[in-house]
């Protein structure tokens, strides 16, 4: 049965991606967290954001964060949006470390695929992640670019110049244009996943 074989390949792939690498001083969970904090938007770079992304408890996410902070890979600031939580940001040391990401070759291989295939693959995986977890369904992460919560306002300023503003209806905050492509844990895909039935 092909579906079973695909499922087994996905399992094999995920195990391989998460495998610990000999001589690497960061565990796969720490790498996962570093990549997340490097790619996530300001609303998601929190303890809860990491816990949701990794599908772990807040306690497990907290341990990973503390360790990365102790080792100088993450810094903590008070959130401007929520006084009770902190925003976590990667440091210069982490930036340098991420240049030598052990999964870089996998990401490069995906990048070599035709953009349409990349989109199809992304949509299929997004649909599969959304089906995990039974009643407590998981939400796949994504970015503002195809999120139902993004509101685009076009304002005509003086001299007929058009100014474009972006606003998130979920968090009730403006979003900077440079942040539209960042990961968000509150993301919800705009279109239903039609890729699951595509035969391209
Ligand atoms: S528009 Fe969607 S992806 Fe963007 S910040 Fe809001 S919830 Fe997140």
Write the layout of secondary structure elements.
Layout: H1 2-18, H2 28-39, H3 47-54, H4 58-70, E1 74-78, E2 86-90, H5 92-99, H6 104-111, H7 115-130, E3 150-156, E4 162-168, E5 173-175
Helix pairs in contact: 2-4, 3-4
The structure holds iron/sulfur cluster (SF4).
Notes on the protein architecture:
The protein has 200 residues and is an alpha+beta fold. It folds into 2 domains: 26-102, Winged helix-like DNA-binding domain superfamily/Winged helix DNA-binding domain (Arc Repressor Mutant, subunit A), CATH 1.10.10.10; 113-197, no CATH class. Helices cover 41% and strands 14% of the residues. It has 7 helices and 5 strands; from the N terminus they run ααααββαααβββ. It has helices at residues 2-18, 28-39, 47-54, 58-70, 92-99, 104-111, 115-130, and strands at 74-78, 86-90, 150-156, 162-168, 173-175. The strands form 2 sheets. A 3-stranded antiparallel sheet has the order 3-4-5, with no helix packed on it. It has a two-stranded antiparallel sheet with strand order 1-2. A hairpin with a 4-residue loop joins strand 4 (162-168) and strand 5 (173-175). Helix 2 crosses helix 4 (58-70) and helix 3 packs across helix 4. It is globular. Residues 193-200 have low confidence and may be disordered. Bound molecules: iron/sulfur cluster. Residues 41, 43, 143-144, 147, 149-150, 168, 170-171, 175, 184, 186-187 line the site of iron/sulfur cluster.
